[in-house]
Design goal:
Layout: E1 3-8, H1 14-25, E2 30-37, H2 43-51, E3 55-57, H3 64-78, E4 82-85, H4 94-99, E5 102-106, H5 118-124, E6 129-136, E7 146-153, H6 160-190
Parallel strand pairs: 1-2, 1-4, 2-3, 4-5
Antiparallel strand pairs: 5-6, 6-7
Helix pairs in contact: 1-2, 1-6
The chain binds glycinamide ribonucleotide.
Length: about 190
């Protein structure tokens, strides 16, 4: 049974691209049914066009409750086995989290440096090591159970952008390996 993955992304989409490429090469035995973004002008939109993956744009509205309900209905219509938050800069509503299996990639070694500025916060704290975390999404901000982590050294002359790019190289490998493992264990539990 082929597993459907729904990706949520808000920015460059390099994680989304790595996941899509891994499904297309067979490294992940699953299928990306679509990428949903809240940012219609984000680079991830162009990446999906090139990769021939459906993009669903769902810009934030002034009515947050309606936006959450619509997001839920979109996901429900796609019936994903796994939802992957890959650089999606929105908090997901409790109903969404309790209905779908959702994982998130975070650019720090949680529980250190949760939130939207993890790389900046690691530099400000003068951390010598930071990294990447893949975790289940729960109702908190980056508080869900950790699935996988990998360290990245902070170098003396790192800027936020340079360090983030080095972390994202690690994140791309970690998210692909984690999705592959999770989908395989879902297959095994079906047997
Ligand atoms: C990644 O570093 C991801 O961990 C981060 O956004 C980046 C997306 O990169 N997400 C968060 O910080 C969420 N708290 P991308 O747009 O190149 O895939």
């Amino acid at each position: 049974m082929s597993r459907n993955i729904l990706i949520l992304a808000s920015g460059t989409g390099s994680l989304a691209e790595a996941i899509i490429v891994a499904t297309q090469s067979g490294e992940i035995s699953g299928n990306v049914i679509g990428v949903l973004t809240d940012q219609p002008d984000a680079q991830v939109v162009a990446k999906c066009a090139v990769l021939e993956i459906p993009i669903i744009t769902h810009p934030m509205s002034s009515d947050r409750k309606s936006w959450d309900s619509e997001l839920f209905l979109i996901a429900q219509s796609l019936n994903p086995s796994l939802v992957v938050s890959a650089g999606f800069m929105r908090i997901l509503a409790p109903e969404f989290i309790s209905t779908f299996k959702v994982i998130n990639s975070h650019p720090a070694l949680l529980p250190k440096f949760p939130g939207a500025h993890a790389v900046r916060d690691a530099l400000a704290a003068k951390a010598s090591v930071t990294g990447a975390t893949i975790h289940w999404v729960d109702s908190g901000i980056d508080t869900g159970k950790v699935i996988a982590q990998q360290e990245v050294q902070v170098l003396a002359d790192d800027t936020e952008a340079v360090l983030h790019e080095r972390i994202k190289i690690v994140e791309r490998g970690l998210i692909v390996a984690t999705i592959s493992d999770l989908l395989s264990s879902m297959e095994n539990s079906d047997e």
